[in-house]
Amino acid sequence: MTHLTPDQFIDSIDAIDAKVDLSRAASAHLAGCEVCQAERASLTEALGDARAVTMPEPSPLFWDHFSRRVAAATSGEAVPVPAGRTSAGWRSVWASALVAGVVTVAFVVWRAPVGPAVPVGQPTVAASGDAVAGDDHGLRGVAILASDLKADELQQVARPSADATAAAIEDLTPAQRAELVRLIKMQTSGAE
Amino acid sequence: MRAGANAAVAAGWKSAWDLGMTGRDRTGSAVAGRTTDRVDPSDGMVSLEAADDHALVVAFLGGRREAFDVIVERHRRHVYQLCFRFMGSHEDASDLAQDVFIRAFKGLRNFKNESSLGTWLYRVAVNVCLNRRALKRPETEPLDPAEHVDTRLDSPLEHVLREEKALVVRDAIARLPPKQRATLVLRVYQELSHEEIADVLGSSVGAVKANFFHALGNLRRYLQST
Question: How distant is the Cα of B124 from the closest Cα of chain A, in angstroms?
Fold first, then answer.
């Protein structure tokens, strides 16, 4: 057998502390090889030197002081919210779906063929969400979801920051992503 | 377990505890028992001090900021010791340990519960220390024996010799390459298993043993050259 490998040397040191059993072949080699015995003795001595260095113990008062420092440093931080687990996370999902819906509706309206001229005196249809949705159940669903959002949230959706949508999607769970894809597909297929 | 934890966060701390989650500390000892033993009769809620690490994380992410204070109290000593072994001075160790917990505060939402919280904190601490070490070589702080070490059983001569030797060894450890130093510190002083060290350092058990072997070899060479 060749000399012990680094793994086996470490195992042989651990074997001193009865933490592992060295393999029979390695033990047999070690018993008869002076080179490996010397190497192991040298490693064991270095380990003993390292273990002999005691850990300076701070004052008992230090620990409370330390905890106060950490508390002060984190006092201005909000408790992090688990990714995709909260109502805020779901609001991001609905907000993204709403954006997708609005974009789709705008695209459909923009691409719609020009119809016959409206007779003079006949009232035109207001471009409200309800009117655009008509009998489209998907758009009605989006409208219902949007009704749950506050005005400032809608404003935020309308003017998302550069990475807001990407970050919101990053935070989604697989199930939430699947739901978002389903909503978008539903809207896109309705547009075609 | 994962699904249960998610549900617990949504439902709140008490429900999380009701799931009966138990945990283990880094030495493998059970740190939590039956949940029914820990309900505070005054308000029906669970005592955070009695909660296991996993439950503390769930409570913290559920909005109970004070759960993080308990996490700090429970792990500050080990984190500080690890930082001290890396940096060699009380001031640096104190600053870095604080940095570790600030990062943990911000990063606990990403804690996957695939390893123990202690292992995760060690991982953060090693990264913080290695990043700092890249900027600054650690100092070896001479011990003030009157302040730190119980020397009642030493003669003055023994004490001086012991401290001189300790200074030389700490300096030699400070010269080790980062991965070897991290492995040696985690193994010798934090008493982690090779598997736990592999988890902390994100490497294989074989690589950990090889690093430990080379760390001891280099340490021996440095000590012989002084």
Answer: 15
